[in-house]
């Protein structure tokens, strides 16, 4: 038995419902590995769970993703060993906002020596999201016109780089001139400030009236109906997040009148539901990192003790790239 620091949630609400407490951690059981975290990734889903938009049983820990070193393994664990550098996107539930934790060994991926712990924590959850979006939700082909909302954010930056590497014409949207400038710097062909009311017209003027083969929309309520307006006939709106709030019910007839559009609401978890899928998709991501096809700015670092400030900054749209939490 040892102890760890961990974030605890007793109620849903504003960032200050999160408390940092000391918890007991038992020796790992059969099939488990004990991981000493070295870097923790903030992901926007953590906000949805803390606020209560996505319900989790309370009281609860928080956080899906972390990187660390295996300190001990339980009986029957053969696929990781003490000393391995590992990462996970979902260790069978929340709790990555902590210094040390027991997790099912089958949920771990080993990190290549060329990828630092910080890079891994910035890229695993968000990169595995981009991976299924560009490979499976819509397999991007050279010449596709792709629109990526919140393109200066964590997943957004990775999508911009990956879509560009796959040969797409990339349009990124972001809030405000500084983020728009960064979206262009990282490789988008066009960047649009969607805080401006006429952003749809501006986007279509930039593309010469051409609409998107796929719109990757993680903003939700504020952008969704406009995403339908910038999608080409038979194109796809992949609604993969709701940073501005959940999309309200809408008339499916709109999909007909706007040109036989498709809409999907995908998630990282079914795409990585088995150990084989998880490790195959992670290998694809690590290959893309090695080729220089993906990357993300580390926009901010917060100590685990300052977790309230991390969530406050994220919700204020005050960050670009990935936010890291230091255990
Ligand atoms: N379905 C999945 O499998 C999956 C997996 C991972 C992430 N996601 C989704 O992907 C999105 C990006 O995640 P992330 O962790 O990388 O976060 P992030 O993009 O770094 O942060 C969210 C961004 O959304 C934009 N935004 C627009 N309206 C907002 C509002 N009202 N409040 C807050 N932010 C707003 C902001 O950028 P601007 O200031 O430029 O508008 C903000 O920086 C999130 O929606 C998340 O839920 C989905």
Query: Runs with pLDDT <50, length 5+?
Result: none
Tell me the CATH topology of the largest domain. Answer: Quinone Oxidoreductase, Chain A, domain 1
Profile the largest sheet. Answer: 7 strands, mixed
CATH architectural name of the largest domain: Alpha-Beta Complex
CATH superfamily of the largest domain: Medium-chain alcohol dehydrogenases, catalytic domain
Q: Name the bound molecules.
A: NADP nicotinamide-adenine-dinucleotide phosphate
- Kindly estimate the percentage of residues that lie in beta strands according to DSSP: 25-35%
User: Which CATH top level class of the largest domain fits?
Assistant: Alpha Beta
Distance between the termini: 19 Å
Shape type: globular
Give the arrangement of secondary structure elements:
Blueprint lengths: L1 E8 L8 E8 L6 E10 L2 H8 L13 E9 L11 E4 L11 E5 L4 E2 L6 H21 L7 E4 L5 H12 L3 E6 L2 H9 L4 E4 L5 H8 L5 E6 L6 H6 L1 E9 L13 H5 L4 E3 L3 H4 L3 H16 L7 E6 L3 H9 L6 E5 L1
Parallel strand pairs: 8-9, 8-11, 9-10, 11-12, 12-13, 14-15
Antiparallel strand pairs: 1-2, 3-4, 3-6, 3-15, 4-5, 5-7
Helix pairs in contact: 2-3, 2-9
NADP nicotinamide-adenine-dinucleotide phosphate (NAP) binds next to helix 1, helix 2, helix 3 and helix 10.
Keywords, separated by commas or semicolons:
single chain; 327 residues; alpha/beta; Quinone Oxidoreductase, Chain A, domain 1; Rossmann fold; 2 domains; six-stranded parallel sheet; 15 strands; binds NADP nicotinamide-adenine-dinucleotide phosphate
